[in-house]
Design brief:
Blueprint (H helix, E strand, L loop, with lengths): L21 H5 L12 H26 L3 E3 L20 H23 L3 H22 L20 H24 L7 H4 L7 H17 L9 H9 L9 E3 L24 E3 L1 H8 L9 E2 L6 E2 L17 H4 L55 E4 L1 H15 L2 H20 L4 H16 L13 H12 L4 H10 L52 H7 L1 H6 L19
Antiparallel strand pairs: 1-3, 2-6, 4-5
């Protein structure tokens, strides 16, 4: 990594005059290196960059997780590969080390000087979030030496060490929230820069508990995994959709618009289409989330409850038309590894994620967009529904199935509410019809804890995190080794028995008769390589020490998902 030195603008030369007027003797250069801006002025750009990092890289990671696939066949990311000599998929790294980086540290330091303990607490929470996100994405990362100005080469820390530091920082953050309650600043100005919670400190505290929940829950394959602690953290985290951590965008001009809005056009290149997997989860064709009965004579699935729109078909998830884009014929379809060419009839090809065109698109400042793909749409980084599914899985694993079912129902209902907010007035009538039927259907929402499966929980969590929670979804997939059963499966081999997969219906390239990326050695991706233009250009020896120069480094399993 290049030497990270953050400097303010300075005068070209400094001069000392012994005979100056007195006002020159006391004047301070407001742009000098000894001056830091007020804490609230750091907040907006830090939060915006946090969202940008996830969105930018989500375009690529979303192919690993089958949120979407290429409009045309993609032999790189859809095949679990990477782009050599490129910064593609390197924005989270850039956000953590550069655009947040020392700015976040300066915000904390300035807040400490001014006794603005709310900013100090939030600063440590954001640093914990950044480290968690970055290590879950890249594996071993630079942490201990990251911001040391005396160094020009930086050693990597183990993921185990990073996980411990995330916990320490989150707990430190909580201690400063307590200090803020005891010594509130009379003019903190937090609300002026807070694009996430508009200055609500209580919500920031809940967000911090959410970080702890994620940090503890990712270790579910470890012998010392503690589901009770995960549930404790979740219960102290987001309490309803009103607590959702979402970052605000104005959407009036390109500079303040959501990165994924049609005004920015960033989903046009790389051009993606919704996957067959997500469509299956929402249209009732996935074997876990479908209401169909089987005709005892023909063995053919028949509708248990007919859909109010597609009246000859089984019930559709009410979220389907709000989240996803139809094809020209009005039906909802997704693509696999072959892109839209899988449909020879043009009218059957799904529109892009904005819901505007079939095979091409252009930046459009006036298009409405859909769901999270709108110019002024808020971007989530943590939600109440997500927390409830984490609780449901932890409870399920501990044997507390009744607790798991309660959290499952709360998670599904919460995400229904989340999506309904994006539905038009006209769409809400059918949405509510479908929702009532969906929630009453015991195949989709089991009536008893005995009928709840881990697949129910994980697939609903996948839906709730679609198009924003890429790293958490990928962490889930990796914990179950993509195609594993409830025991978790094995990193060393791909489970070819699809009937008991936790993520039923999820397909790796090999499931479609294709090969993984040429350097993968027959394995799926388990990490993203560090950012090329900092690490592979400037920090080669440190990379060599962790195996980062190996062409299949991205297939190496991370510490968090391994049982050791």
């Amino acid at each position: 990594m290049k030497k990270i030195i953050y400097t303010a603008l300075m005068a070209a030369s400094l001069f000392t005059f012994s005979g100056c007027e007195s006002y020159l003797d006391v004047n301070t250069n407001p742009n000098g290196p000894d001056q830091m801006v007020m804490p609230h002025l750091y907040m907006s750009p830090i939060l915006t960059e946090m969202a940008l990092g996830i969105q930018f890289d989500g375009r690529y990671l979303g192919k690993y997780t089958a949120n979407w696939h290429g409009q045309a066949a993609d032999i790189t990311w859809d095949r679990h590969g990477y782009a050599p000599n490129s910064d593609a998929a390197g924005q989270i790294w850039r956000s953590t080390y550069y655009t947040s980086g020392l700015n976040l540290r300066d915000m904390i330091r300035k807040a400490e000087e001014e006794k603005k303990w709310d900013f100090v607490a939030i600063g440590y929470a954001l640093q914990a979030f950044n480290w968690q996100l970055t290590t879950d994405y890249h594996g071993e990362i630079i942490m201990s030496q990251a911001f040391d100005p005396t160094k020009s080469a930086f050693e990597y820390d183990s993921q185990e060490k990073v996980y411990a530091e995330v916990k320490r920082l989150a707990e430190l953050s909580l201690s400063y929230f307590e200090k803020h309650k005891a010594e509130p600043h009379p003019n903190s100005r937090l609300a002026e820069g807070d694009l996430m919670f508009d200055g609500n400190v209580a919500k920031w505290e809940k967000f911090t508990y959410g970080i702890l929940a994620i940090n503890a829950h990712h270790l579910s394959n470890k012998p010392n995994y503690n589901p009770a602690k995960v549930i404790e953290y979740v219960d102290k985290s987001l309490a309803s959709n009103a607590d959702d951590a979402t970052i605000r965008f104005t959407g009036s001009v390109s500079g303040d618009a959501n990165f994924w809005g049609p005004m920015r056009g960033n989903l046009i290149s790389p051009n993606v289409r919704q996957s067959r997997f997500i469509v299956g989860l929402l249209d009732g064709t996935n074997p876990v989330l479908r209401d169909a009965n089987v005709d005892p004579v023909t063995g053919v699935a028949v509708p248990n409850i007919k859909d109010p729109v597609f009246t000859a078909q089984h019930l559709k998830d009410p979220r389907l038309p709000v989240m996803l884009a139809p094809a020209a014929d009005g039906e909802y379809r997704g693509v696999g590894f072959g892109g839209v060419a899988e449909y020879t009839v043009t009218a059957q090809r799904p529109y892009n994620l904005y819901g505007t065109t079939s095979d091409a698109g252009a930046t459009n400042a006036t298009a409405q967009g859909k769901y999270l793909f709108q110019n002024a749409a808020r971007f989530p980084v943590m939600t109440y529904a997500q927390m409830q599914f984490i609780k449901a899985e932890a409870a399920y694993k501990s044997g507390a199935k009744a607790v798991a079912l309660d959290a499952y129902k709360k998670g599904v209902n919460a995400h229904m509410d989340f999506v309904r907010a994006y539905a038009s007035t006209a769409e809400r009538t059918v949405f509510d019809q479908r929702r009532a039927a969906y929630m009453a259907n015991t195949k989709l929402v089991p009536a008893t804890a005995a009928n709840l499966t881990l697949s129910h929980i994980m697939l609903q969590k996948y839906v709730a995190q679609w198009a924003w929670g890429f790293v958490e979804t990928w962490s889930d997939l990796r914990r179950y080794h993509y195609t594993g059963n409830e025991s978790g499966g094995s990193y060393d081999e791909i489970d070819n028995d699809a009937s008991d997969n936790v993520f039923r219906g999820f397909a790796l390239p090999t499931d479609a008769g294709l090969q993984f990326y040429s350097t993968n050695g027959g394995k799926p991706a388990y990490r993203v390589r560090p950012r090329y233009n900092s690490e592979y250009v400037w920090n080669i020896e440190a990379l060599r020490s962790i195996g980062g120069l190996e062409t299949n480094y991205h297939t190496k399993e991370m510490w968090f998902s391994s049982p050791q």
